[in-house]
Amino acid sequence: xxxxxxxxxxxxxxxxxxxxxxxxxxxxxxxxxxxxxxxxxxxxxxxxxxxxxxxxxxxxxxxxxxxxxxxxxxxxxxxxxxxxxxxxxxxxxxxxxxxxxxxxxxxxxxxxxxxxxxxxxxxxxxxxxxxxxxxxxxxxxxxxxxxxxxxxxxxxxxxxxxxxxxxxxxxxxxxxxxxxxxxxxxxxxxxxxxxxxxxxxxxxxxxxxxxxxxxxxxxxxxxxxxxxxxxxxxxxxxxxxxxxxxxxxxxxxxxxxxxxxxxxxxxxxxxxxxxxxxxxxxxxxxxxxxxxxxxxxxxxxxxxxxxxxxxxxxxxxxxxxxxxxxxxxxxxxxxxxxxxxxxxxxxxxxxxxxxxxxxxxxxxxxxxxxxxxxxxxxxxxxxxxxxxxxxxxxxxxxxxxxxxxxxxxxxxxxxxxxxxxxxxxxxxxxxxxxxxxxxxxxxxxxxxxxxxxxxxxxxxxxxxxxxxxxxxxxxxxxxxxxxxxxxxxxxxxxxxxxxxxxxxxxxxxxxxxxxxxxxxxxxxxxxxxxxxxxxxxxxxxxxxxxxxxxxxxxxxxxxxxxxx
Length: 564
Ligand code: DON
Fold this sequence. Notes:
35% of the residues lie in helices and 17% in strands. It has helices at residues 2-12, 40-51, 56-70, 133-144, 149-162, 168-183, 185-191, 208-220, 223-226, 229-240, 247-252, 279-292, 303-323, 334-337, 340-349, 470-483, 489-494, 517-522, and strands at 27-30, 34-37, 80-87, 92-98, 164-165, 204-205, 256-258, 261-265, 268-272, 374-379, 385-391, 401-402, 407-408, 449-453, 458-466, 498-499, 507-509, 528-530, 537-543, 549-552, 560-563. Strand 16 (498-499) and strand 17 (507-509) form a beta hairpin. The model is unreliable at 1-12 and 359-368 (pLDDT under 50). 6-diazenyl-5-OXO-L-norleucine binds at residues 370, 372-373, 391, 393-394, 412, 415, 444-446, 466-468, 471.
């Protein structure tokens, strides 16, 4: 009897987070597989899938779905994302774009019409773009998964159904957003408990309606999300909040296979995300410029090195602002932007002692704090790898939730140039090329990236992050920390970072990021903003020469990797 009770308890008890220690392990390592996600339960689910015989793609899909439950403020089936996949046997990289698209009824003047709330692209129905997450994860699984679909989705449904302990990140978002949530009726109702309170760290979060939706997708596949009662409920919720999503928009959604961008740095091959993300282009541009600087100081925090990197980053962000958009709608001059000769010429003109003046663009809003978006990195026993970034954009997306289905809808429309000449919620200036149009994908900064090394083509580093534009600079710095400064993923991810995005014309630094402190940059005329600020969260996994797999999740978001 006791045995039966014990078994029952094991089956129905909410999952346990490993006992809290003063500082959770920065790295997880094993010889078979590693998953670095920004929540320990999601990392563990990924590793369980690997242990059960799944490959890196199975693990990435299960982890992404689980993240949408345990960190519902960051990502979920109401959002979308990008993935770069390395297939060891073929020695080939693939990219999948499951970014949201603007509804067919969206027009360039959607957000400039008179009488519209100034934050209509951020909150409410108009902010919602057609979600791509379910279609994207299902496509990844269809192409490369080895386990049954039910096996990769069930762990997420179980978490939502049985409950899970509220993590530190979710709890801090509740603290920051409690009063805002109260104004978002359906979202608030999904999250609040019967006694009207929001869960605190360690208390159980239950998401039964989301669980029902996940079960329906488990049984019916992605169509169960894009057609039928779930789709109808989503359309109803978005329309009730003033949006224009239609049943046809959902029915028509398709992820797109894309050719990954390929670059090189210090003898390694780098595969990263092409447009409609700007992340890969910017990353390769900066790496190209840095590699051309033969006398780049070696020390990570050296003032000259940091100054030169900042100048290179500003060039990349200025190009982003001007040239980038959805390639189906605007010609993106990729060859020119990534041309080695042009990058070398730009690098030769970089001067860490000369700050370039940006063109004036009016008032620029400061970037919001991090919490939207999740990045996960996986390496399996066969050497397959997945870098996947998924998002509903800013915390809890549009704040529109479909009460019936438990789905929290993205506010990815704000990633378009919604009002010409005005920055978006991350302070990013963008051009006409990224204007709203029906069926168009908004420009992104997400930078899922895989670094391939050696004659045996090993996925030496798999990484990416969250944090809007800070994804680009975060991914860049962690990559440099590993490749240039020979750090292990843990210290590489934890090391203090700096960020510049051209406009606003200021550097943000974490204490310790630059030798000599802020003064070293202020001397050159930079406006410097010192932390504690949000720098996004990078998750990295490495495959070492001897076969050891090491994963690290960013302590900034309280994540933890798992391995076996
Ligand atoms: O695609 C993008 O670039 C943004 N939607 C990412 C948003 C994000 O990382 C939110 N985290 N702060």
